Amino acid sequence: MTRHQKRLSVPNSWPVERKEQTYTVKAGAGPHGEEGVPLLIVLRDVLGYVDSKKEARYALEQDSILVNGKALSDEQRPIGMFDILAFVEREEYYRVFPDEGGRLALTEIDADAADSRLGKVVKKQQVAGGDTQLTLHDGTTLLADDDTITQNDSIVVSNDDKSVVAHFSYEEGALVTAVDGEHAGEIGTVDEIQVTNGSSQNNVLVDQDDGRFETVEGYVVVIDENFTGDDA
Example GO molecular function term (predicted)? Predict the structure, then answer.
């Protein structure tokens, strides 16, 4: 199986220039599905901390690059929305956040904010023993004691013990960001959730200071002011 991917065919969320070269590194197995950006691209093309795959591998061997609190060894590991990157020796911390246009970008945050990450609940189910299992947007699964958490809500998960440290309900009045579609990267407040019949997604009307936009439910994520980057 090839370890390269044509730049013209990468997802729109990848922060790469499509016409500079024919190929780029291919994402390995891991979270975020096909939208996940290989860590090498973040280190080389976005931050400029390495010039090659060899340099990236050496940097990872030092255990000073953490993703969601865990040291990584694979430069192809997919990085995606709301992941937390920590560069221990540099004392630099970033949250992966979609910019306007939908490309994944890095928002600098402080060390305290790097202790946890945001996740959108995409599935909730009962498992053996009667526990409630939540599945997040990146494929992460965890057990939760809070029965009020439901699909489309957002939670903040500790990178240390994977516990839920905050819960933001998906409801009218909630602060959200669009993460896909023509309004990707825009932030506003849910004005109305329009329930549709059948299998179609619900529509969401989002108010902003200078107007409003409409998108589908699957394209929005509930956030807190601390996750917009304004307080970083």
Answer: structural constituent of ribosome
